[in-house]
From TrEMBL:
UniProt keyword terms in alphabetical order: Membrane, Transmembrane, Transmembrane helix
Protein name stated in the entry: Serine aminopeptidase S33 domain-containing protein
Domain Serine aminopeptidase S33 residues, every copy: 90-195
Pfam families listed in its UniProt record: Hydrolase_4
Keyword Manganese part of the UniProt annotation: no
Species: Herbihabitans rhizosphaerae
Stored PANTHER family: ALPHA/BETA HYDROLASE DOMAIN-CONTAINING PROTEIN (PTHR12277), XAA-PRO DIPEPTIDYL-PEPTIDASE-RELATED (PTHR12277:SF79)
Amino acid sequence: MATTNERRETLPHTRRVRITLIVLAALLLLVVTVLVLAYVFQRRLIYLPSGTPPPASSVLPGAREVTLTTHDGLRLGAWFIQSTVDGSPVVLMANGNGGNRSGRAPLAGELARRGLSVLLFDYRGYGGNPGDPTEQGLASDARAARQYLVGELGVPPNKIVYYGESLGTAVVTELATEHPPAALILRSPFTELAAVAEEHYPFLPVRTLLRDRFPLLEHLRKLRVPTTVIYGDTDSIVPTAQSRTVADTAPEPRRVVIVSGANHNDLALHQGPQVVDAVVTASR
């Protein structure tokens, strides 16, 4: 039988064990809650759409409103600006993960002035379009954009150039595995979405949680098309090392354009002269 002193010593020890177990249970609950929230709401961190853009004519003179139809029946808003040069190449532009097509109008306008036609479109869930963005959904939207050029406008496939910006680089690279373009242009590309997420959320098991993968490098290895890679050397969103890896993996003939001092969302990368010149050169 325990003595009175032994019972007195046992009681504080039991209390400490109980408190420790409660703290550990609370921490475990917190971790599980964070992981569940990250899994459920991850697409709100990936896709950052803005509302309906203004009329095309107000931001991109000479452009007209067009509608794309996806295989699952969504109707997507888009703008098309026709070059004054007969038979000119057409640049299919796939946006990054934020904003809408109006933010890419300055680049489209510069390309049009340099003799290129341009199709600007918004993904599902962007720019007032119906639907919710997903990896599969964006791939379908890009196919609809290409089909509009080929089917509706009669553009020869060998006159279509794909231009992808950030997230859009993965979208057009996948599209190129199905429908090779005349040229592929990747601005601020990453190797895969998980690799970018690990940089920004190192405390999360992102490879386990991610539902949308965007394995750009995997698709790029399948291609045999002229490729241009453009990136800034001070990018804080997509690590420069990843863009460099994409450039090293790109098929020949390839060209690499490094915009010195440019961060991910700087105007120099959105519509700067190096970017415009690189697109024009790749499209010839």
